[in-house]
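Tutorial, part two.
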Amino acid sequence: MHKVILPSLAEGVDKASVSYWHRSIGDSVKEGEDLVELVTNKATFNMPAPASGKLKNIMVQEGEEAAVGQTIAIIE
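Running the prediction step on this input gives:
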């Protein structure tokens, strides 16, 4: 099991909103491919999958905010 954690962002940015999940629960993912699109007050960017496996759980839904260091999904 691998936790997908919102990484440190630009200086002064401590949260991001999930705008789009590129995969759904149960989908296979490969390390390095786009997993989720995030929006901050400074930029929009895609976060790659930190590991290969199956997307088991999405803990932050589209439109919701997450804090830096928060687990946003689980890859098994």
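The chain has one domain: 2-75. In part three we will examine how such features are distributed along the chain.
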